[in-house]
Amino acid sequence: MIDCKLRDIPSVGTELRCGRYHGSNFWDLKGFGENKWVVAVYIDFDDTKALGQMQPWHTEKEVMQACLAFLNQPPPRIKYQKKESEPLYGRLSIYQYVFKKDEHDRHYIEALLITDQRQNRHFWGKGKRDKF
Questions:
Q1: What is the tally of structural domains in the chain?
Q2: pLDDT of 86-117, one tens digit each?
Q3: What is d(CA 39, CA 115) in angstroms, rounded to the nearest whole number?
Q4: Which of 44, 64, 72, 125 could be 21's S-S partner, Cβ–Cβ 3.0 to 4.6 Å?
Q5: Domain assignment of residue 131, yes or no
């Protein structure tokens, strides 16, 4: 796993959130609008550490999967907690991604991820509910 963090995205006010629900229809995604929604995010990771751990045969897809494995971990259990913790952003999976560099030559990932939560407090907006 690679330590990753979703980049905060500002809005009109001072509040920051980690991404936003995508407004387009994804017809090729089975279950879209019923139990799957797409969010647009930027993923920051320590590129010197992550890319240093990468062996020459590792691909960008393997790095992306390692980041998602980290993001899909639920927070640690609180003492005496009865209910099991859920992942902060829902269960994320890959839809589309691109590796990019910012102006300081740090790597980040621009991604569209699939989540199973229609309305999550960490993302702007809410997922479209399509009745076909």
A1: 1
A2: 888 899 999 999 998 888 888 889 999 999 99
A3: 7
A4: 125
A5: no
